[in-house]
Design goal:
The complex is a heterodimer of chains A (about 170) and B (about 150). Chain A has four helices and five strands, in the order H-E-H-H-H-E-E-E-E. Chain A is extended. In chain A, about 25% of the residues lie in helices and about 25% in strands. The chains are: A alpha+beta (about 170), B mainly alpha (about 150).
Protein backbone atom coordinates (compact mmCIF):
# COMPACT_ATOMS: atom_id res chain seq x y z
CA UNK A 1 0.00 0.00 0.00
CA UNK A 2 1.37 3.44 -0.84
CA UNK A 3 2.51 4.99 2.41
CA UNK A 4 2.84 8.58 1.30
CA UNK A 5 -0.47 10.36 1.85
CA UNK A 6 -1.60 12.42 -1.07
CA UNK A 7 -4.76 13.95 -2.33
CA UNK A 8 -5.34 11.20 -4.87
CA UNK A 9 -5.13 8.44 -2.30
CA UNK A 10 -7.42 10.38 0.01
CA UNK A 11 -9.87 10.96 -2.84
CA UNK A 12 -9.99 7.21 -3.44
CA UNK A 13 -10.49 6.50 0.25
CA UNK A 14 -13.27 9.02 0.69
CA UNK A 15 -14.99 7.71 -2.43
CA UNK A 16 -14.83 4.13 -1.23
CA UNK A 17 -15.97 5.15 2.22
CA UNK A 18 -19.06 6.56 0.55
CA UNK A 19 -19.57 3.49 -1.64
CA UNK A 20 -19.11 1.03 1.21
CA UNK A 21 -21.71 2.96 3.19
CA UNK A 22 -24.19 2.05 0.45
CA UNK A 23 -23.51 -1.68 0.69
CA UNK A 24 -26.54 -3.81 1.65
CA UNK A 25 -26.33 -4.93 5.26
CA UNK A 26 -28.85 -7.76 5.44
CA UNK A 27 -27.84 -10.65 7.64
CA UNK A 28 -25.97 -13.47 5.98
CA UNK A 29 -28.07 -16.63 5.97
CA UNK A 30 -27.13 -20.18 5.15
CA UNK A 31 -28.03 -21.76 2.81
CA UNK A 32 -27.68 -18.54 0.82
CA UNK A 33 -30.86 -16.51 0.92
CA UNK A 34 -30.59 -13.14 -0.66
CA UNK A 35 -32.86 -10.19 -0.85
CA UNK A 36 -32.49 -8.43 -4.14
CA UNK A 37 -33.22 -4.75 -4.10
CA UNK A 38 -34.31 -2.70 -7.03
CA UNK A 39 -34.40 -5.39 -9.65
CA UNK A 40 -36.04 -5.00 -12.97
CA UNK A 41 -39.38 -3.23 -12.77
CA UNK A 42 -41.92 -4.78 -15.06
CA UNK A 43 -44.03 -1.88 -16.18
CA UNK A 44 -43.49 -2.94 -19.75
CA UNK A 45 -42.04 -5.87 -21.62
CA UNK A 46 -38.35 -5.33 -22.06
CA UNK A 47 -37.98 -6.93 -25.44
CA UNK A 48 -39.75 -8.95 -27.99
CA UNK A 49 -38.10 -12.16 -27.00
CA UNK A 50 -39.42 -11.84 -23.48
CA UNK A 51 -42.90 -11.52 -24.92
CA UNK A 52 -42.15 -14.62 -26.96
CA UNK A 53 -40.94 -16.33 -23.84
CA UNK A 54 -44.13 -15.30 -22.10
CA UNK A 55 -46.28 -16.74 -24.83
CA UNK A 56 -44.17 -19.85 -24.70
CA UNK A 57 -44.49 -20.17 -20.97
CA UNK A 58 -48.16 -19.33 -20.81
CA UNK A 59 -49.11 -22.47 -22.62
CA UNK A 60 -47.80 -24.34 -19.66
CA UNK A 61 -47.50 -27.40 -21.74
CA UNK A 62 -43.77 -27.50 -21.80
CA UNK A 63 -43.17 -27.42 -18.13
CA UNK A 64 -42.82 -30.76 -16.53
CA UNK A 65 -43.14 -30.66 -12.80
CA UNK A 66 -40.68 -32.87 -11.17
CA UNK A 67 -39.70 -33.10 -7.60
CA UNK A 68 -36.24 -32.57 -6.36
CA UNK A 69 -35.08 -36.09 -6.44
CA UNK A 70 -34.46 -37.55 -3.01
CA UNK A 71 -31.19 -39.27 -2.60
CA UNK A 72 -29.34 -37.17 -5.15
CA UNK A 73 -26.98 -35.93 -2.56
CA UNK A 74 -23.56 -34.51 -3.25
CA UNK A 75 -21.39 -32.36 -1.02
CA UNK A 76 -22.63 -29.28 -2.86
CA UNK A 77 -26.20 -30.40 -2.65
CA UNK A 78 -25.87 -30.78 1.08
CA UNK A 79 -25.44 -27.04 1.24
CA UNK A 80 -28.88 -26.57 -0.21
CA UNK A 81 -31.08 -28.60 2.04
CA UNK A 82 -34.69 -27.92 1.23
CA UNK A 83 -36.03 -25.17 3.43
CA UNK A 84 -39.57 -25.37 4.75
CA UNK A 85 -40.93 -26.52 1.43
CA UNK A 86 -44.28 -27.97 2.31
CA UNK A 87 -45.51 -28.13 -1.25
CA UNK A 88 -43.50 -29.59 -4.06
CA UNK A 89 -41.70 -26.93 -6.03
CA UNK A 90 -41.70 -27.88 -9.64
CA UNK A 91 -38.82 -26.90 -11.84
CA UNK A 92 -38.92 -26.67 -15.61
CA UNK A 93 -37.46 -29.04 -18.09
CA UNK A 94 -34.64 -27.73 -20.23
CA UNK A 95 -36.69 -26.55 -23.19
CA UNK A 96 -37.28 -23.06 -21.84
CA UNK A 97 -35.53 -19.97 -23.04
CA UNK A 98 -32.42 -19.37 -20.95
CA UNK A 99 -31.79 -16.20 -19.02
CA UNK A 100 -28.57 -14.88 -17.60
CA UNK A 101 -29.87 -14.45 -14.07
CA UNK A 102 -32.44 -16.22 -11.90
CA UNK A 103 -34.18 -12.90 -11.29
CA UNK A 104 -34.76 -12.35 -15.00
CA UNK A 105 -36.04 -15.90 -15.43
CA UNK A 106 -38.50 -15.50 -12.58
CA UNK A 107 -39.67 -12.10 -13.76
CA UNK A 108 -40.28 -13.46 -17.25
CA UNK A 109 -42.27 -16.34 -15.78
CA UNK A 110 -44.30 -13.86 -13.74
CA UNK A 111 -44.93 -11.77 -16.83
CA UNK A 112 -46.10 -14.86 -18.64
CA UNK A 113 -48.50 -15.62 -15.81
CA UNK A 114 -49.75 -12.06 -15.41
CA UNK A 115 -49.03 -9.99 -18.52
CA UNK A 116 -50.43 -6.83 -16.96
CA UNK A 117 -48.23 -7.06 -13.90
CA UNK A 118 -46.69 -3.72 -12.95
CA UNK A 119 -43.63 -2.94 -10.90
CA UNK A 120 -42.90 -6.50 -9.91
CA UNK A 121 -39.66 -7.15 -8.10
CA UNK A 122 -37.69 -10.15 -7.09
CA UNK A 123 -37.59 -10.01 -3.32
CA UNK A 124 -36.06 -13.31 -2.24
CA UNK A 125 -34.07 -16.16 -3.66
CA UNK A 126 -33.82 -19.40 -1.74
CA UNK A 127 -31.36 -22.12 -2.58
CA UNK A 128 -33.10 -25.50 -2.91
CA UNK A 129 -30.72 -27.95 -4.45
CA UNK A 130 -27.45 -28.18 -6.29
CA UNK A 131 -25.37 -30.87 -7.86
CA UNK A 132 -22.50 -30.80 -10.30
CA UNK A 133 -24.52 -29.39 -13.19
CA UNK A 134 -27.73 -28.00 -11.77
CA UNK A 135 -28.89 -25.43 -9.27
CA UNK A 136 -32.54 -25.19 -8.27
CA UNK A 137 -33.91 -22.11 -6.60
CA UNK A 138 -37.18 -20.68 -5.46
CA UNK A 139 -37.51 -17.04 -6.47
CA UNK A 140 -40.15 -14.82 -4.92
CA UNK A 141 -41.70 -12.15 -7.15
CA UNK A 142 -43.81 -9.50 -5.51
CA UNK A 143 -45.96 -6.61 -6.64
CA UNK A 144 -49.08 -5.04 -5.24
CA UNK A 145 -51.64 -7.82 -4.80
CA UNK A 146 -49.21 -10.31 -6.28
CA UNK A 147 -46.78 -12.67 -4.62
CA UNK A 148 -45.64 -15.93 -6.11
CA UNK A 149 -42.68 -18.22 -5.80
CA UNK A 150 -41.22 -19.55 -9.02
CA UNK A 151 -39.08 -22.58 -9.46
CA UNK A 152 -35.97 -21.48 -11.31
CA UNK A 153 -33.37 -23.93 -12.52
CA UNK A 154 -29.81 -23.11 -13.48
CA UNK A 155 -27.90 -25.43 -15.77
CA UNK A 156 -24.22 -25.26 -16.48
CA UNK A 157 -23.70 -24.65 -20.17
CA UNK A 158 -20.14 -24.29 -21.38
CA UNK A 159 -19.01 -23.20 -17.97
CA UNK A 160 -21.74 -20.63 -17.43
CA UNK A 161 -25.07 -20.96 -15.69
CA UNK A 162 -28.22 -20.46 -17.72
CA UNK A 163 -31.47 -19.96 -15.87
CA UNK A 164 -35.00 -21.01 -16.74
CA UNK A 165 -38.15 -20.16 -14.85
CA UNK A 166 -40.89 -22.61 -13.99
CA UNK A 167 -44.40 -22.81 -12.56
CA UNK A 168 -45.67 -20.55 -9.82
CA UNK A 169 -46.65 -21.23 -6.27
CA UNK A 170 -48.60 -18.53 -4.42
CA UNK A 171 -46.69 -17.15 -1.47
CA UNK A 172 -49.40 -18.11 1.03
CA UNK A 173 -49.42 -21.80 0.10
CA UNK B 1 -14.20 -24.09 9.39
CA UNK B 2 -17.15 -25.31 7.34
CA UNK B 3 -18.74 -23.64 4.32
CA UNK B 4 -21.41 -21.92 6.35
CA UNK B 5 -18.99 -20.37 8.81
CA UNK B 6 -16.70 -19.33 5.99
CA UNK B 7 -19.56 -17.73 4.07
CA UNK B 8 -20.80 -15.84 7.12
CA UNK B 9 -17.30 -14.58 7.85
CA UNK B 10 -16.58 -13.35 4.33
CA UNK B 11 -19.98 -12.44 2.98
CA UNK B 12 -19.96 -8.77 4.04
CA UNK B 13 -16.50 -8.23 2.52
CA UNK B 14 -17.72 -9.73 -0.74
CA UNK B 15 -20.87 -7.61 -0.79
CA UNK B 16 -18.88 -4.44 -0.13
CA UNK B 17 -16.46 -5.39 -2.90
CA UNK B 18 -19.36 -6.04 -5.26
CA UNK B 19 -20.98 -2.77 -4.24
CA UNK B 20 -17.89 -0.89 -5.31
CA UNK B 21 -17.89 -2.70 -8.63
CA UNK B 22 -21.56 -2.77 -9.65
CA UNK B 23 -23.43 -0.62 -7.14
CA UNK B 24 -25.54 -1.52 -4.10
CA UNK B 25 -28.68 -2.73 -5.84
CA UNK B 26 -26.87 -5.50 -7.70
CA UNK B 27 -24.12 -6.38 -5.23
CA UNK B 28 -25.97 -9.16 -3.39
CA UNK B 29 -27.14 -10.61 -6.69
CA UNK B 30 -23.57 -10.77 -7.92
CA UNK B 31 -22.34 -12.43 -4.73
CA UNK B 32 -25.20 -14.93 -4.72
CA UNK B 33 -24.53 -15.84 -8.33
CA UNK B 34 -20.87 -16.46 -7.60
CA UNK B 35 -21.52 -18.53 -4.47
CA UNK B 36 -24.20 -20.60 -6.18
CA UNK B 37 -21.92 -21.23 -9.10
CA UNK B 38 -19.15 -22.45 -6.83
CA UNK B 39 -21.44 -24.60 -4.70
CA UNK B 40 -22.89 -26.21 -7.81
CA UNK B 41 -19.47 -27.75 -8.34
CA UNK B 42 -17.71 -28.12 -5.04
CA UNK B 43 -17.53 -27.17 -1.40
CA UNK B 44 -16.04 -23.79 -0.61
CA UNK B 45 -13.63 -25.47 1.75
CA UNK B 46 -12.33 -27.69 -1.04
CA UNK B 47 -10.83 -24.64 -2.74
CA UNK B 48 -7.16 -23.88 -2.19
CA UNK B 49 -7.87 -20.27 -1.25
CA UNK B 50 -11.62 -19.85 -1.08
CA UNK B 51 -11.53 -16.18 -0.17
CA UNK B 52 -9.35 -15.28 -3.15
CA UNK B 53 -11.43 -17.54 -5.38
CA UNK B 54 -14.66 -15.77 -4.40
CA UNK B 55 -13.10 -12.33 -4.78
CA UNK B 56 -11.98 -13.28 -8.28
CA UNK B 57 -15.44 -14.66 -8.97
CA UNK B 58 -17.08 -11.43 -7.84
CA UNK B 59 -14.77 -9.37 -10.05
CA UNK B 60 -15.40 -11.59 -13.06
CA UNK B 61 -19.14 -11.70 -12.52
CA UNK B 62 -19.18 -7.93 -12.05
CA UNK B 63 -17.33 -7.45 -15.33
CA UNK B 64 -19.85 -9.73 -17.05
CA UNK B 65 -22.71 -7.79 -15.53
CA UNK B 66 -21.19 -4.45 -16.53
CA UNK B 67 -20.67 -5.73 -20.06
CA UNK B 68 -24.29 -6.80 -20.31
CA UNK B 69 -25.42 -3.47 -18.97
CA UNK B 70 -22.82 -1.68 -21.11
CA UNK B 71 -22.16 0.93 -18.45
CA UNK B 72 -20.68 1.43 -15.03
CA UNK B 73 -22.72 2.36 -11.96
CA UNK B 74 -23.63 6.01 -11.93
CA UNK B 75 -23.67 8.57 -9.16
CA UNK B 76 -27.45 8.13 -9.03
CA UNK B 77 -26.99 4.42 -8.36
CA UNK B 78 -25.05 5.10 -5.19
CA UNK B 79 -26.55 8.36 -3.98
CA UNK B 80 -29.35 7.04 -1.83
CA UNK B 81 -27.94 8.78 1.20
CA UNK B 82 -26.73 12.35 1.60
CA UNK B 83 -23.24 12.70 0.23
CA UNK B 84 -20.95 14.69 2.47
CA UNK B 85 -17.95 13.54 0.54
CA UNK B 86 -16.52 12.76 -1.89
CA UNK B 87 -17.06 15.45 -4.48
CA UNK B 88 -19.60 14.32 -7.07
CA UNK B 89 -17.04 14.76 -9.84
CA UNK B 90 -14.57 12.52 -8.02
CA UNK B 91 -17.22 9.89 -7.33
CA UNK B 92 -18.28 9.92 -10.96
CA UNK B 93 -14.68 9.57 -12.07
CA UNK B 94 -14.08 6.60 -9.78
CA UNK B 95 -17.30 4.92 -10.91
CA UNK B 96 -16.25 5.39 -14.51
CA UNK B 97 -12.98 3.54 -14.00
CA UNK B 98 -12.82 0.09 -15.58
CA UNK B 99 -13.76 -2.62 -13.10
CA UNK B 100 -10.22 -3.93 -12.78
CA UNK B 101 -8.87 -0.48 -11.92
CA UNK B 102 -11.66 0.06 -9.41
CA UNK B 103 -11.04 -3.32 -7.87
CA UNK B 104 -7.32 -2.70 -7.53
CA UNK B 105 -7.70 0.74 -6.04
CA UNK B 106 -10.44 -0.42 -3.67
CA UNK B 107 -8.35 -3.29 -2.37
CA UNK B 108 -5.27 -1.12 -1.93
CA UNK B 109 -6.65 2.22 -0.80
CA UNK B 110 -9.68 1.09 1.17
CA UNK B 111 -8.96 -2.46 2.28
CA UNK B 112 -5.32 -1.61 2.89
CA UNK B 113 -4.03 -4.63 1.00
CA UNK B 114 -0.51 -4.74 -0.31
CA UNK B 115 0.04 -4.94 -4.04
CA UNK B 116 0.81 -8.64 -3.66
CA UNK B 117 -2.33 -9.30 -1.62
CA UNK B 118 -4.54 -7.31 -3.97
CA UNK B 119 -3.16 -9.02 -7.04
CA UNK B 120 -3.75 -12.42 -5.42
CA UNK B 121 -7.38 -11.55 -4.71
CA UNK B 122 -7.82 -10.36 -8.28
CA UNK B 123 -6.03 -13.31 -9.81
CA UNK B 124 -3.53 -11.15 -11.68
CA UNK B 125 0.21 -10.52 -11.53
CA UNK B 126 1.50 -7.83 -9.15
CA UNK B 127 2.84 -5.87 -12.09
CA UNK B 128 -0.60 -5.78 -13.64
CA UNK B 129 -2.10 -4.58 -10.38
CA UNK B 130 0.50 -1.80 -10.25
CA UNK B 131 -0.45 -0.79 -13.77
CA UNK B 132 -4.14 -0.66 -12.87
CA UNK B 133 -3.29 1.54 -9.89
CA UNK B 134 -1.14 3.80 -12.06
CA UNK B 135 -3.88 4.22 -14.66
CA UNK B 136 -6.52 4.88 -12.02
CA UNK B 137 -4.37 7.42 -10.23
CA UNK B 138 -3.64 9.18 -13.50
CA UNK B 139 -7.34 9.41 -14.29
CA UNK B 140 -8.26 10.70 -10.87
CA UNK B 141 -5.36 13.13 -10.88
CA UNK B 142 -6.75 14.68 -14.04
CA UNK B 143 -10.14 15.14 -12.41
CA UNK B 144 -8.67 16.63 -9.24
CA UNK B 145 -6.45 19.00 -11.17
CA UNK B 146 -9.41 20.10 -13.24
CA UNK B 147 -11.21 20.95 -10.02
Amino acid sequence: MPTEPDNIAEAFRSTYRHLVDQAPTSEAEWPPVFTIQGTTPMGRPRSGWIVAAGAFLITGSFWIGWLVAPGRSTPAADAFQVQTVTTAVAVPDTTGIPFTSPADAALAAALAQAPDLKDAQVTRIVGIYADDTTVDLRVQVQASDFCHWYGVAGHVQEGALEWRGGPALPCDE
Amino acid sequence: MDDEAFFRKNRDDLVRYATVLVGPSTAEDVVSTVVLRVLARRRLMDLNDARAYLFRGVLNESRTWLTRRRSSPTVDDVADTPMADPQPEVLAAVLALPAQQRAATYLVYWEGQSIAEASALMGIRPGTAKRYLHLARRTLKGVLNAN
